[in-house]
């Protein structure tokens, strides 16, 4: 049986009249990188803040195994502190601290220890914030849209190093984003949120093997049995994204074509479907 | 707690060092000035020596400046110690970082506030002790009442409790406004309000006594009581029949002619003395206790407001 890093049952959070999270039940597997995806306002930050214990839930239950560290989206640092001071801050403010791990992360990206954080570039500040988060030796590391200000190469480097950290420890990483391009090659597990509800949840490989894109002549229904996620039509052609048992292996008669979907396609299909786009 | 001491020191070290240096400087000046005033008072008490005892001489004048500085330091404590504790963190958006470590928000607030209270308390206690000593030496030389104005506020450990209260007010203003400049404005407005209210209220903590002061005509009196005079320079006059006349009627009417000798004018109108409202000297300790109590109540109230603000602060967005 797969170990669970975070489990919720009917979790809800209300801000005045607005429910940011409602009837949210999920069990996220341990020692994986979990991609938490959703549009702005979907409830990602709320879920992470509740999991980190800095925001009380309005209702429901949440269980987390071990230590939780949250790196919020603006990656706050004390601007007058040097990088070394920030590591001292982490050491003094946490019961458990791994100085070597934090130093090792900074060393990989060549961050100078004696420079004030306020004088570092945005990308370097991200690395310092990551080092402080990793030094706290979390069992569950919650990264709330942390890679937004990195260039694509640096982003790929960081995600690669993160995967290495997960492989070398028993840590689970939840990486929240609304930038679908950030997901490529990162997540083992996908959790998609929409308006405070869970829309899609599962192992990435399994989800990809259960979805197919079908392209063919204009039709009201797809040529295979399954749940239609998204349908788009032009005058002569229809395109469906369907969740079905055989996925891309689904047999279809010509002129229909069955194509595998990428993770980006899959996420976009669910996000578009949620906004009512592409459906007649 | 050691961790929070380190964090507080690292974040506020320049404020702490500057305050310590200022405290040391004030302490040295107060010791020197008090010593000089003591010598001057002892010299004046020698037989056959007549002294002017003028407040405008350099030593009493310095003492007055020093006592006023100590009385006004608490507002600087509020601005430079209290306000930045939370307001700067709100402005720089560093609270999510601080509060998401193992030290949660309530321990963070308790720890940092405790360190600041201890430091302000230590510096405040030193200055309060010295300012009380200085007030006594000032009184010994100038014969100004210890129960009046700056001398009263510099004594009875009031500078200590006032500094602690305004440290808490600064923290609360920062927590409530979340902006440094706005919090400083709030602190300034509250400080002025406090000054106005206390000047009016201080004389009425207890029901004042009424006392008749006859004109002795013997010149300099030998007793210099530490009463708090509530009439200022406008005490009403009393005549031989026991009738009371206002200062305006006497000094602004009957005896307003600058060519008339005041003494003969008062004699002509059968004025024999003044009636004054006062708080007697033996109430000074009680008044210090009352004002210290007000300060400590403000300290507790401000910390409660801070606690409530911190508790309801959201560190995330939807």
TrEMBL record, chain A:
This is ABC transporter ATP-binding protein. One of its GO terms (molecular function) is ATP binding. PROSITE patterns: ABC_TRANSPORTER_2 (PS50893). CDD domains: ABC_DR_subfamily_A. Signal peptide: none annotated. Keywords: ATP-binding, Nucleotide-binding, Transport. Residues 6-220 form the ABC transporter domain. The keyword Nucleotide-binding applies. Pfam families: ABC_tran. The keyword Transport applies. It comes from Catenulispora subtropica. Coiled coil: none annotated.
UniProtKB/TrEMBL annotation, chain B:
The chain crosses the membrane at residues 65-87, 108-130, 150-173, 180-201, 293-310. Pfam families: ABC2_membrane_2 (PF12679). Signal peptide: none annotated. Keywords: Membrane, Transmembrane, Transmembrane helix. This is ABC transporter permease. It comes from Catenulispora subtropica.
């Amino acid at each position: 049986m797969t170990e669970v890093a975070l489990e919720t049952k009917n979790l809800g959070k209300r801000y005045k009249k607005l429910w940011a999270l409602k009837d949210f039940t999920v069990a996220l597997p341990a020692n994986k990188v979990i991609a938490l995806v959703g549009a702005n306002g979907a409830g990602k930050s709320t879920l992470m803040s509740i999991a980190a214990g800095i925001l009380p839930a309005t209702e429901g239950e949440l269980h987390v195994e071990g230590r939780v560290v949250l790196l919020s989206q603006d990656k706050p640092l004390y601007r007058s502190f040097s990088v070394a001071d920030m590591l001292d801050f982490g050491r003094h403010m946490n019961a458990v601290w791994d100085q070597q791990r934090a130093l090792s992360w900074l060393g990989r990206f060549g961050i100078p220890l004696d420079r004030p954080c306020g004088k570092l570039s945005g990308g370097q500040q991200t690395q310092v914030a990551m080092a402080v988060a990793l030094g706290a030796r979390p069992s569950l590391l919650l990264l709330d849209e942390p890679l937004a200000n990195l260039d694509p190469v640096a982003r790929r480097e960081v995600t690669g190093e993160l995967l290495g950290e997960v492989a070398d420890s028993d840590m689970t990483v939840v990486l929240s984003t609304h930038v679908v391009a950030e997901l490529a090659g990162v997540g083992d597990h996908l959790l998609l949120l929409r308006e405070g509800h869970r829309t899609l949840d599962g192992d990435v490989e399994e989800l990809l093997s259960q979805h197919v894109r079908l392209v063919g002549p204009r039709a009201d229904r797809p040529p295979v049995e399954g749940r239609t996620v998204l349908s788009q039509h032009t005058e002569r052609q229809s395109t469906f994204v369907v969740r079905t048992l055989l996925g891309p292996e689904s047999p279809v008669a010509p002129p229909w074509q069955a194509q595998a979907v990428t993770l980006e396609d899959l996420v976009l299909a669910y996000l578009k479907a949620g906004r009512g786009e592409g459906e007649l | 707690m050691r961790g929070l001491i380190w964090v507080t020191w690292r974040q506020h070290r320049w404020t702490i060092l500057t305050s310590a240096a200022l405290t040391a400087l004030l302490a040295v000046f107060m010791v020197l000035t008090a010593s000089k005033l003591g010598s001057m008072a002892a010299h004046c008490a020698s037989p056959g020596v007549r002294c002017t005892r003028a407040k405008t001489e350099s030593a009493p004048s310095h003492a007055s400046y020093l006592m006023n500085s100590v009385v006004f330091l608490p507002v600087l404590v509020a601005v430079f110690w209290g306000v930045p504790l939370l307001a700067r963190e709100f402005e720089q958006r560093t609270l999510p970082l601080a509060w998401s470590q193992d030290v949660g928000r309530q321990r963070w607030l308790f720890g940092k506030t405790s360190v600041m209270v201890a430091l302000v308390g230590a510096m405040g206690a030193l200055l309060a002790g010295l300012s009380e000593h200085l007030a006594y030496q000032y009184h010994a030389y100038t014969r100004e009442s210890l129960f009046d104005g700056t001398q009263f506020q510099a004594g009875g450990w009031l500078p200590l409790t006032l500094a602690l209260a305004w440290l808490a007010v600064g923290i609360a203003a920062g927590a409530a406004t979340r902006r440094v400049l706005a919090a400083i404005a709030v602190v300034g407005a509250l400080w002025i309000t406090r000054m106005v209210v206390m000047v009016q209220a201080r004389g009425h903590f207890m029901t004042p006594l009424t006392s008749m002061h006859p004109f002795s005509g013997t010149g300099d009196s030998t007793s210099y009581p530490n009463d708090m005079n509530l009439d200022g320079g406008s005490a009403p006059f009393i005549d031989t029949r026991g009738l009371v006349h206002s200062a305006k009627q006497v000094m602004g009417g009957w005896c307003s002619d600058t060519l008339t000798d005041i003494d003969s004018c008062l004699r002509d109108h059968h004025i024999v003395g003044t009636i004054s409202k006062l708080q007697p000297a033996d109430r000074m300790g009680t008044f210090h206790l009352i004002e210290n109590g007000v300060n400590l109540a403000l300290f507790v109230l401000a910390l409660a407001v801070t606690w409530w603000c911190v508790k309801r602060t959201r560190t995330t967005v939807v």
